[in-house]
Structure formats: structure tokens, C-alpha cells
């Protein structure tokens, strides 16, 4: 499904009769927001435009355009894995398709984790595809299953982008640019990081966080949901469930499930997949460490002067950075539900909370943007560290595997598995069980300051501009146009379900994904000045 199909679905929902809009289930039960009220709703989400804000918008868009040009030029030199093994046009098409799908994966997450508290009857008639998405995702523990499958999809798509747009030989000429520019934008990957963050993640997250109902009202979203559920069902990520149970036992906090305990075949099938996942994870780790110690990764090609031991250290370092940032997201939103005097129990815990919740809380969305930049940068670096530089058919296949298997591993599947389980899901589960411990960690404060600095630079500020452009082009509306604000839903006897911090333990939904209320106007709207 391309953008035109998305636009068709969004516009269709826009012009249907909105029997369930901002004042649903009033006496008339037929209220439709007027255009004036829609404009007022739009205005409530706007931010103050200062000269510095405008400068960041313009500079970020210019940086995005330059990044697209330089990465596109690199692809057509044939100096990326996909371009070399197929054709530059194939690499470009795959890269674009990956970015488009990533935008749906990221935006759909914002929609599906924000909608559970809202009564689905409020959008059942006006948004049938959104209702189908919700009916599947909110059945039993399917939301956790979706999030686990979705997490692997994000990593795999990012690794594919790296294979399409990451340079094989850093010395190849690109547009006659100086070596320093190539080092920053291609070797380190700033070009890929910028267009992946802006086009594939932040733009769609900005829209989906406040247009949840419209965003997934299409078949593309439903298809993505089924793919994520299928990935989870395959069992590749099931070792995460073992971590989930171990953390629950360590914290003494039970995992609240919406399904009965597993018995018989269901029990055996579940734990069989856990064992299979552990075996797959073990093999992937063995591949990475053997390649690192033998100098058979892309790091050896890009940075031949680095010793193998340093590459091993960098692997653990960036995996830890990803893990901390993934866990911090969960912990920050979880403690936001607690009274201020319970949020931090140490010097660094209190400093972290004071900075995070300063003023009206604008540093929270600022952290999310800086975090996204850091995480994506780490993803690409991990992809280079774990990416194999082994040509099949030369007798150097790792562990003597067949050429077809070696070619498959060269595209980064093993790295995506390791990063998803050990650097993402495990840390998210740990943060859901021990949110205060995460806040008390000095590294949390350091990473928060770094993330806020990255957001301040405005590298990805263009996402806010593109979000407004895409919102207008696709005709999507803010959620309150259809279901009202939380206060209006409460006044009409359709109050949101209450989500407590105790429900977060052992779940990827965690407090970290339920911090924004559908139809509310809060600091998550944007970088408030």
C-alpha cells in the first residue's frame, strides 16, 4: 500500500458521517464537529513559533535534503551491499519501501498503545478499519504479542536500510565530497540516521500520537499488524518470555495476564518455542563473536585500524546504550503516574526527575526525540559491528555453513535478533519491573542530558514541518474530532479505562507507551517553547 492508498483511506474516513465525534452520545447522538471547531482543535496543538524554532525547522529540512542526496548518490555508485549484489535501482526501491513500512510500524505503535483506554464503540462506525485493528490487538494479550513482533520488525527494517544505504568501501568517491563529509554522513551514517529518523519515525509518530484513530484506519495498518503477530508467533523472540518470568520473580510483582494459564499442548508449544528461541539467540551470538574475533565484520572494512578487541567492546557499549534508552522510555512514563515525592529515591534519581518534569513537562517529548536519534545511531553502528564481511563460495563461511545460509546472514538477520532480544525487549521488561532503579542510575541522568542536547540542536526538527504537511495531504484529523477529549468522554459516560502502574510489570506496553491520553492537549504535542 503506497501513500496514495493511505490518503484514500484517510480521506474516506474524514468525510463519512461522524456520528461519534467530540460530543458522542450526547442526547442527539449525531453531533459532528463544525469546521470552526476543527480549526480550534488544530490550534490547541500548535506551538509558539520563535525565530530559533523557525531556524531549526529550515536547517533540519535542508539537512534532510542533503542527506537524501548524498545517500542516493552513494547507492548509485554501487557501493552498498544490495546495490553491489543486485542493482542500484533495486537498492533504492528497497530502501524507500523500508522507510515507508517503518513509518507505518512506528505510527501504528503510537495508535495501538494509546487507544486501549478508549471505548471502541466510539469509533466503530466511523472508522471500521481502526476498529478491526483494535479488535485484534486488544484481544487477550495480543498487544504484547504485537509489540514484541513489531520490535523485531523495526530492527530488521533498520538493518535492511543499512544494507541498502551503508557504504562498503569508505574510500569510494561520492559527488566529489571531502573525506571529512563522507566520514560523517556515510561512514558514521549521519545521512541514514537523519532521513530514517525524520521520514521513517518522528514524522509519523508526531501525527499518530494525536491522530491515532485516523492513522490506522486502512488495510496497510491491518497488514502490518498481522505481520507483527506472525513474527511473534514464529517463536524467534520467545526467549524474551523467559526473561519476563525471571524479572517478575526477582521483583516479586506478578504478571497480570488477560488470558487463562497455559495448559497441555498450549503450554508445551509455548515453552518449545522458548527453547528454540534460546538456541537461535545462542547461534546468533556465536556468529557475532566468531566474526568479531576473526576480523570478519564490516567494522574491519570501515575502520581497519581498530583492533578486534575494541570492536567487541564497542558491541557491548552500543548494545548497553540502546538498552538504557529503551528502558528509560518505559521508566519515565511509568514514574510520571506516581506522586512527585515517589519518583526518585537517590541524588541522581531526583535530579533526573527534576530535569525531566521541569515546567510543564516539555523535556519529556524533548527526550523522546533525542532518544530516537541516539537509538537509531546505535542501531546502525550495531548493524556495522555485527554485519558480516564474508563472501560465500570462498571457503570462509562461518562455521562452515552453506553458501545460501551465509548469504542470508550477510544481510544482518543475526544482528537484528540479538539487538531485539538483548538490547531492546530485555531492558524494556527490566524497566517495567524496576522503574525507580532505572531513575536512580547515574547513567540515566547522563543520557537524559545528552538526549535533550541532541533535541536542542534541532537535527530532526523538520519532522514537525513534514508531520503538518502529511497531515494536511492525507486529511487526517486529531482524535478529539471523533471521540472528544478525556474530559468530554467522561462527561458523556464513556470515561477511559484506568491504567495503573501495576499493569505495566512484565509488559512491553509498560507505562512508557501509555503516557498520552487520546484527544488530550499536553506537553507531548511538540517542542513547546
Write up this protein:
This protein has 529 residues and is an all-alpha fold. Helices cover 65% and strands 0% of the residues. The chain contains 24 helices and no strands. The protein is globular and about 70 Å long. It starts with a helix and ends in a 38-residue tail after the last helix. Mean pLDDT is 83; it is low at 1-32, 510-515 and 523-529.
Oligomer class: single chain
The helicity comes to 55-70%
DSSP summary, beta strand count: 0
Q: Spans of 5+ residues with little confidence (pLDDT < 50)?
A: 1-32, 510-515, 523-529
Q: Mind describing the biggest β-sheet?
A: none
SSE class: mainly alpha
Average pLDDT confidence is 83
Number of helices: 24
Q: In angstroms, what is the radius of gyration?
A: 23 Å
Proportion of β residues?
A: under 5%
Instruction: Give the ordered list of helices and strands.
Output: HHHHHHHHHHHHHHHHHHHHHHHH
The rounded distance between the terminal residues' Cα atoms is: 37 Å
Shape: globular
List the topology elements.
Blueprint (H helix, E strand, L loop, with lengths): L2 H13 L19 H10 L6 H25 L5 H5 L2 H27 L13 H10 L4 H24 L13 H9 L2 H19 L3 H4 L3 H16 L4 H13 L12 H31 L3 H5 L5 H28 L11 H10 L6 H24 L16 H7 L3 H21 L1 H6 L1 H16 L4 H13 L5 H4 L2 H6 L38
Helix pairs in contact: 3-9, 3-22, 5-7, 5-9, 5-11, 6-11, 7-11, 7-17, 7-19, 9-17, 9-22, 12-13, 12-19, 13-15, 13-19, 15-17, 15-19, 16-21, 17-19, 17-21
Amino acid at each position: 500500500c503506497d501513500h496514495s492508498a493511505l490518503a484514500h483511506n484517510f480521506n474516506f474516513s474524514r468525510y463519512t458521517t461522524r456520528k461519534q465525534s467530540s460530543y458522542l452520545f450526547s442526547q442527539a447522538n449525531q453531533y459532528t464537529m463544525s469546521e470552526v471547531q476543527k480549526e480550534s482543535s488544530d490550534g490547541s496543538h500548535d506551538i509558539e513559533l520563535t525565530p530559533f524554532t523557525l531556524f531549526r525547522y529550515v536547517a533540519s529540512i535542508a539537512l534532510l535534503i542533503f542527506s537524501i542526496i548524498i545517500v542516493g548518490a552513494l547507492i548509485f555508485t554501487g557501493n552498498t551491499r544490495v546495490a553491489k549484489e543486485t542493482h542500484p535501482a533495486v537498492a533504492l526501491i528497497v530502501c524507500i519501501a523500508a522507510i515507508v513500512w517503518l513509518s507505518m510500524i512506528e505510527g501504528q505503535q503510537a495508535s495501538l498503545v494509546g487507544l486501549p483506554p478508549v471505548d471502541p464503540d466510539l469509533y466503530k462506525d466511523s472508522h471500521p478499519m481502526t476498529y478491526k485493528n483494535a479488535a485484534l490487538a486488544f484481544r487477550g494479550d495480543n498487544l504484547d504479542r504485537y509489540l514484541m513482533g513489531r520490535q523485531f520488525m523495526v530492527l530488521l527494517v533498520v538493518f535492511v536500510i543499512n544494507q541498502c544505504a551503508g557504504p562498503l568501501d569508505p574510500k569510494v568517491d561520492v559527488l566529489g565530497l571531502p573525506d571529512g563529509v563522507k566520514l560523517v554522513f556515510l561512514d558514521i551514517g549521519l545521512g541514514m540516521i537523519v532521513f530514517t529518523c525524520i521520514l521513517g519515525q518522528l514524522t509519523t509518530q508526531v501525527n499518530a500520537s494525536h491522530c491515532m484513530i485516523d492513522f490506522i484506519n486502512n488495510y496497510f495498518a491491518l497488514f502490518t499488524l498481522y505481520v507483527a503477530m506472525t513474527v511473534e508467533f514464529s517463536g524467534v523472540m520467545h526467549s524474551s518470555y523467559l526473561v519476563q518470568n525471571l524479572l517478575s520473580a526477582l521483583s516479586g510483582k506478578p504478571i497480570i495476564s488477560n488470558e487463562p494459564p497455559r495448559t497441555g499442548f498450549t503450554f508445551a508449544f509455548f515453552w518449545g518455542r522458548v527453547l528454540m528461541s534460546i538456541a537461535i539467540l545462542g547461534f546468533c551470538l556465536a556468529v557475532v563473536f566468531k566474526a568479531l574475533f576473526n576480523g570478519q565484520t564490516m567494522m574491519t572494512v570501515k575502520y581497519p585500524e581498530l583492533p578486534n578487541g575494541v570492536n567487541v567492546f564497542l558491541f557491548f557499549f552500543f548494545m548497553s546504550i540502546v538498552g538504557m534508552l529503551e528502558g528509560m522510555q518505559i521508566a519515565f512514563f511509568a514514574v510520571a503516574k506516581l506522586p512527585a515525592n515517589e519518583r526518585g529515591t537517590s541524588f541522581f534519581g531526583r535530579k533526573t526527575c527534576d530535569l525531566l518534569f521541569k515546567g510543564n513537562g516539555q523535556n519529556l517529548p524533548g527526550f523522546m526525540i533525542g532518544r530516537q536519534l541516539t537509538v537509531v545511531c546505535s542501531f546502525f553502528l550495531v548493524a556495522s559491528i555485527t554485519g558480516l564481511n564474508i563472501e560465500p563460495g570462498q571457503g570462509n563461511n562461518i562455521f562452515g555453513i552453506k553458501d545460501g545460509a551465509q548469504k542470508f546472514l550477510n544481510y544482518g538477520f543475526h544482528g537484528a535478533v540479538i539487538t531485539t532480544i538483548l538490547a531492546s525487549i530485555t531492558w524494556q521488561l527490566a524497566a517495567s519491573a524496576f522503574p525507580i532503579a532505572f531513575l536512580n542510575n547515574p547513567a540515566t541522568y547522563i543520557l537524559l542530558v545528552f538526549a535533550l542536547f541532541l533535541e536542542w540542536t534541532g537535527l530532526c526538527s523538520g519532522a514537525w514541518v513534514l508531520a503538518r504537511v502529511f497531515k494536511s495531504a492525507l486529511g487526517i484529523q486529531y482524535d478529539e474530532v471523533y471521540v472528544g477529549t478525556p474530559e468530554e468522554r467522561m462527561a458523556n459516560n464513556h470515561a477511559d479505562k484506568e491504567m495503573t502502574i501495576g499493569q505495566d510489570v512484565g509488559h512491553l506496553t509498560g507505562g512508557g507507551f501509555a503516557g498520552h491520553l487520546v484527544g488530550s492537549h499536553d506537553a507531548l504535542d511538540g517542542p513547546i517553547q
